[in-house]
Design goal:
It contains twelve helices and twelve strands. The protein is α+β, with helices and mostly antiparallel strands and 331 residues long. It folds into two domains: 217 residues, Sandwich (Jelly Rolls), CATH 2.60.120.10; 101 residues, Arc Repressor Mutant, subunit A. β3 and β4 form a beta hairpin. The model has no long low-confidence stretch (mean pLDDT 87).
Length: 331
């Protein structure tokens, strides 16, 4: 069954995956559907992040998130993806057949993913942090090899997808979306096999140019100017009990400027935006930190649990207890 995701709902999924500073900008802010389809994020017990999508993008826009040094391995099964690493934009397209592309993120960077109206995308992604790789090196020579990869002058590599890689990617996609899967190790085994095969290809290319990669399409169109700093800075001030004037002073803007910005970009007043972000944090505390409703209400700045529960239900259409039970039933 396809899922319909609004800007807020997609942002929630991305933040649940660990990218807590994620920001989404949509051209059509009135649209209640940013994407439709299947979107899956999972951090496996081994530490590998798996991300699978089969979706249609319904409006122009982009998402920003800060990512740590990592290797991101992708099989684009269908469609086109546009993204930027810091200030360099890339376009990858599966025209007649699937393609494999690998991104080397050599330091903490801003990753921008662009949405295109009516663009269909089917993709499998694995991300492995640099630290994950270094802790699994058996010798200094292995560590130096990892450092050499991350020192590469090229950030994005692209190859045609082999039959083996395509088979692994297809299996990984199916098992990732399989809600009846009993054993996570089946998914981990596939993910590790897929990673090892792709990592060998990358290593061989850097060592001997065994299979020369295709040059990715570099898009030189200007990147959008984002007010990402407003959201990021407010995120750090959510729990300081500041007045709107004090928040505005810390952001270096007037209250009226902030009110216009948040009304334009989020269709919310500044006060409503702050309240909603506090409730989003509360949701994650309930689900991932397994805190009691009373604890979460206190951390969220509510003096009475009943007031917190009422605000929570109004925003999420379920009570905090119902939210916790819903996720506990998935375990």
């Amino acid at each position: 069954m396809n899922t319909r995701l609004s800007k807020v709902e997609l942002s929630r999924k991305i933040k649940d995956a660990g990218y807590e500073d994620a920001f989404i900008e949509a051209k059509d802010i009135a649209s209640k559907e940013l994407i439709t389809g299947k979107v899956y994020f999972k951090k496996l017990p081994s530490g590998i992040d798996v991300h699978c999508v089969n979706m249609t993008e319904h409006t122009e826009g982009y998402s920003n998130s800060q990512i740590d040094a990592c290797i991101s391995i992708n099989v684009l099964l269908a469609g086109k993806v546009s993204f930027a690493l810091e200030h360099q934009r890339y376009d990858i397209q599966a025209q007649s057949s699937p393609v494999l592309f690998i991104n080397i993120i050599n330091s903490q960077q801003i990753f921008t993913r662009f949405f295109t109206q009516q663009q269909q995308v089917k993709k499998v992604n694995l991300s492995i942090t640099k630290q994950w790789l270094l802790t699994r090196c058996g010798s200094m020579a292995n560590r130096l090899h990892i450092e050499k990869i991350f020192a590469s002058a090229q950030s994005v590599f692209q190859w045609p997808c082999t039959e083996k890689q395509l088979t692994l990617a297809a299996e990984l996609y199916q098992k990732s979306l399989d809600e009846t899967l009993n054993f996570q190790w089946e998914l981990e085994q596939l993910a590790l096999q897929f990673f090892c095969d792709s990592f060998t290809l990358l290593s061989d290319n850097l060592d001997r140019d065994a299979i020369p990669p295709k040059e990715p399409d570099i898009n030189n169109s200007p990147l959008p100017v984002s007010q990402f700093d407003f959201e990021a800075k407010i995120e750090s001030l959510l729990f300081e009990s500041l007045s709107l004037k004090q928040i505005a002073d810390k952001l270096g803007a007037s209250v009226s400027t902030l009110q216009r910005y948040f009304k334009s970009h989020h269709q919310l007043t500044l006060k409503e935006y702050i309240r909603n972000q506090i409730l989003e944090h509360a949701r994650r505390r309930l689900i991932f930190d397994n805190q009691s409703v009373g604890e979460v209400a206190y951390h969220s700045g509510y003096n009475h649990v009943s007031n917190f529960s009422s605000a929570f239900k109004k925003y999420f259409s379920m009570t905090p207890i119902e939210m916790q039970n819903q996720y506990r039933n998935l375990e």
